[in-house]
Automatic annotation (TrEMBL):
Organism superkingdom: Bacteria
Name the record gives this protein: dTDP-glucose 4,6-dehydratase
GO molecular function per UniProt: dTDP-glucose 4,6-dehydratase activity
Keyword Metal-binding: no
GO biological process: nucleotide-sugar metabolic process
Enzyme class (EC, first level): lyase
Family note: Belongs to the NAD(P)-dependent epimerase/dehydratase family. dTDP-glucose dehydratase subfamily.
Domain NAD(P)-binding stretches: 4-307
Entries under Pfam families matching the protein: GDP_Man_Dehyd (PF16363)
CDD domains in UniProt: dTDP_GD_SDR_e (cd05246)
Organism phylogeny: Bacteria, Candidatus Gottesmaniibacteriota
Amino acid sequence: MKLLVTGGSGFIGANFIKYWLEKYSADDLVNLDALTYAGNPDNLNGFEKNSRYSFIKGNICDPAVVSKAIKGAEVVVHFAAETHVDRSILKPSLFLKTNILGTQILLEAAVKNKIRHFHHISTDEVYGSLNLKSKEKFNEKTRYNPRSPYAASKAAADHLVLAYHETYGLAATITNCSNNFGPYQHPEKLIPLAITNLLQGKKVPVYGDGQNIRDWLYVSDHCRAIDSVIKKGKCGEIYCVGGLKQDISNLEVIRKIVKLLNCRESQIEFVKDRPGHDRKYAIDWTKINRELGWQPEEDFEERLKETAEWYVRNEAWWRKLKGKNFQVFYRRNYKKL
Ligand code: NAD
Ligand code: TYD
């Protein structure tokens, strides 16, 4: 089987490509990625020699590029997106272009090329924000209520995927997952930002009171969930994917990292809150468990330790990403820090 993976040079996409090529030795895979600031060829170092892997540098918003990349593929796994909420607040238009228009161009090509299965990677952020004290969790029936330009663009893309399923009969599925963590995550996101800032002797910026809660999902658990949906999922369906059994605040996550790296709590700096900052995400993954037999298997504490160790060992990888352009974004986003 041949798969077209979009955004395979980013964090989750690269982990997924490694996972898939290792597990399915008869499959071929094409990675279409524009190599934006978040796309990094180093994430797939050595894979250029793998005869089952090929790479096309190109933008999903370009119909000609997409039409070429999709030729011969049976399955499309769509990761490519602008993904950082803070950047979506600074420059929403790019998010609308890539996440909405880019998805529509891919869907169009998928219909034209009679793709057997189109799988779209989405986020729990489309559901909005839970109250901090609430025991409620998002599930597949939760009303969409996106509250950031990023979340709104992902919500629009989800609607388009389902519309193409209903209107054109495209065999499509969606996973709405929680915050991933693990190796190869760009150091703009909370966990790698905290680890790398501490390793650089810098402060770790915590938005607001640090009490916001995210549902952390280890990236390999996520790859297995996507695998289950591609192999056994029902078309036209959404599956929610989450990782945590217990609520944990951002501040607690950062304190754990500070401890793992033998740093000082004085390196934690409370900064002005992110506008529209969602208070809490929590995912009910009963449906994917009941219907497809998936459940998260990784232990948060163990994987957090392993992730911190990965960043310690791979300093050359993340140093490159924290260069001049990153500093421009950082100063703009965090002002005084
Ligand atoms: P990432 O930012 O690390 O990588 C995104 C990749 O997409 C990069 O390689 C980038 O070059 C590529 N890309 C961006 N615009 C493109 C374009 N126009 N054409 C082609 N390629 C383009 O993202 P990630 O964290 O790996 O997220 C992957 C997917 O998972 C996204 O759709 C995201 O919305 C979703 N998701 C991520 C998380 C998370 O915690 N990281 C959680 C839920 C959902
Ligand atoms: P992030 O990794 O940006 O993911 P998302 O916004 O998609 O959930 O942020 C995770 C949480 O950490 C979120 O509540 C915002 C918070 N956060 C900080 O407190 N400081 C930071 O510097 C960043 C990047 C995030």
